[in-house]
Design a protein that fits this description.
Distance between the termini: 77 Å
Mean pLDDT: 83
Largest sheet: 4 strands, antiparallel
Strand order of the largest sheet: 1-2-3-4
Shape: flat
Radius of gyration: 33 Å
Helix content: 40-55%
Number of strands: 11
Length: 485
């Protein structure tokens, strides 16, 4: 590394926003709209005002012999000839929309991206560009949801979810969608078989897959399982699984961990898990494996004796509970919780873990050791905690796993995810699993969903949800009919 060429800056140069460099040519663009051309070999510089305001970005065209410079401003784009230090062509944002980024596709092909997401591949004169995709007549319609108008894409998603796809359904483009986009979508969906036989929830799964929405897809997977208990969720869903499947997975994991354990801490982890699971023979066996010259020999032998001699007598139970409480109070949380589990006080152990913010341990123990009612209380507290800390998606999935569908809908509504809340409520209604106590939240969800549909100009389906939204929904429906007239 050595010092290169030094050229003193011009006094009129502002804050440098962008630099382009190739060979002996360096170009600087500043916040006052000046371009500074540096010839590093001749040690000379030229400062040229553009009179267009602050320069956001500059790029030299690719290729050895090209001297073209692409300059991006707040209100448009220019192409400069570096050799002559003059403008070759210019285009303003009023013609192509607000420019958010520029680049070179080739030495004579500048590429401009505007705020609507359109990509314009132009020539050096900046006067030709491809048509928008909605203006093209494609032989084979293309399914790329994110290149189309967002409002129309959401409308199509809603039609797939809510219209039933009966054979006698009118497949013509509705007023809220342009014909070419509608045809492209229908062409894709013809590749999917038996749409007319799918349930509402199955159509939600299909749309989530079509739109590449992983979060929604996971939610509909969980909801589908807890509505009909058809096929168990995979281990990837972890604590969202039902308790029996989760327990089986944890036992398998523990078996694998025991085969791979290689040190004292691994063995202690296995002992801890077995005690929480309610096993006593395996922990005693593992504790007695300790070497005689180990510093833990005496303590582990005492622990093995204690586990083996635990009785159901009232005196033994109260003594162990007192010892466990003292251990927990003196920063020995796990050891104290192990003692509580030995005397069948797993629910107390869960509460201590929650009080000491050991939430993962508390949920693990709740899923493998608590009764249904005790588990429900622990998870209810954990769901509220997740929502308050911003982990709403996991909170929603856990609420569904408790069959607290009204709670899940309430969280979705509070986070303004009404496009998920309404299908969730309707799926539960279709399956006959919506709780009677959730009527109020159901009406609120349907009213908000109807308002969302109105914003998409989808009045037809909005009126359907107004009818399902209680008194407020019916009032909104009347207002929509009056406005339509």
């Amino acid at each position: 590394i050595k010092e290169g060429t030094r050229i003193p800056p011009d006094s009129q140069t502002g804050l440098i926003n962008s630099i382009a460099w190739r060979g002996d040519l360096m170009v600087l663009g500043d916040s006052t709209g000046h371009l500074s051309f540096w010839d590093l070999k001749a040690r000379q510089s030229r400062l040229i005002p553009t009179s267009r305001g602050a320069i956001k970005k500059i790029l030299l065209a690719p290729g050895r012999n090209t001297q073209l410079l692409l300059v991006m401003f707040n209100d448009g784009v220019e192409i400069w000839d570096c050799a002559e230090s003059e403008v070759l062509s210019s285009i303003k944002s009023s013609k192509i929309g607000e420019v958010v980024d520029v680049d070179w596709g080739a030495s004579d092909r500048p590429v401009i991206v505007n705020e609507s997401g359109a990509v314009h591949i132009m020539d050096v004169n900046l006067d030709t560009a491809p048509n928008p995709i909605t203006a093209l007549s494609l032989y084979t319609p293309v399914w790329l949801p994110f290149i189309y108008n967002q409002k129309e894409m959401m409308n199509f998603k809603i039609y797939v979810q809510h219209m039933g796809w009966q054979e006698n359904w009118d497949m013509k483009s509705p007023k809220c969608c342009t014909p070419i986009i509608w045809d492209a979508m229908l062409h894709t969906l013809k590749l999917r078989h038996k749409f007319s036989t799918l349930s509402f929830l199955e159509r939600c799964l299909v749309t989530a897959a079509l739109y590449g929405d992983v979060v929604e897809w996971r939610l509909w997977q969980v909801l589908a399982y807890y509505l009909d208990q058809s096929s168990p969720l995979s281990s990837a869903f972890d604590i969202v699984q039902d308790n029996r499947s989760y327990l089986n997975n944890q036992v398998q994991n523990l078996s694998v961990q025991e085969k791979c354990r290689s040190n004292y801490s691994h063995r202690q982890h296995s002992i801890h898990r077995h005690i929480l699971l309610g096993n006593t023979d395996k922990p005693v066996q593992l504790l007695l494996e300790v070497e005689q010259d180990s510093p833990h020999f005496y303590r582990d032998c005492l622990r093995a004796s204690l586990i083996s001699s635990v009785s159901d007598s009232e005196v033994a139970q109260s003594t162990i509970k007192l010892v466990a409480t003292n251990l927990i109070a003196n920063d020995h949380l796990l050891e104290g919780c192990q003692l509580l589990c030995l005397i069948k006080k797993a629910v107390d152990a869960c509460r201590y873990m929650q009080n000491f913010h050991q939430y993962n341990e508390a949920i693990w123990l709740a899923k493998v050791a608590l009764s249904k009612d005790e588990y429900y209380e622990v998870m209810k507290y954990y769901i509220d905690l997740l929502v308050n800390k911003g982990s709403r998606h996991l909170g929603i999935l856990l609420a569904i796993s408790l069959s607290a569908f009204d709670k899940a809908a309430e969280i979705l509504l509070a986070t303004k995810l009404v496009t998920i809340a309404a299908p969730l409520v309707e799926s539960c209604l279709e399956a006959g699993k919506w709780p009677e106590s959730g009527t109020d939240i159901m009406h609120r969800v349907f009213v908000e969903y109807a308002k969302y549909l109105v914003s998409l100009n989808n009045i037809e389906i909005a009126l359907k949800y107004c009818e399902m939204g209680g008194e407020k929904g019916k009032q909104l429906g009347e207002e929509l009919r009056i406005c339509a007239q």
